[in-house]
Amino acid sequence: MKGYLFLNDVEFIKTHDVAVLVVMCANIVPDFMKFIKQCQFLTKFAVMPRYPNELQITKEDAKVAIRFAEEIKEFVVNNANAHTK
Prior knowledge:
Order of helices and strands: HHHH
Number of helices: 4
Radius of gyration: 13 Å
Largest sheet: none
Distance between the termini: 16 Å
Structural class: mainly alpha
Shape: globular
Strand content: under 5%
Mean pLDDT: 87
Helix content: 55-70%
């Protein structure tokens, strides 16, 4: 999503919170908001590994995260060509 924002000349903050990034992308293409819950789930994979004592991720969580990330990536790629300035 940071790449998508960059392609659209949108400055973004330095963050690992994927939900923040999806909201910023939704300012360009509102359909990004359909991924808000997935992004909230994925954020723990970006933040929690930095604090391993708090890491409570199961194998099933990892599989779900991969599926969510692939869905979002496909959406971003499909919209990158259609909505760049």
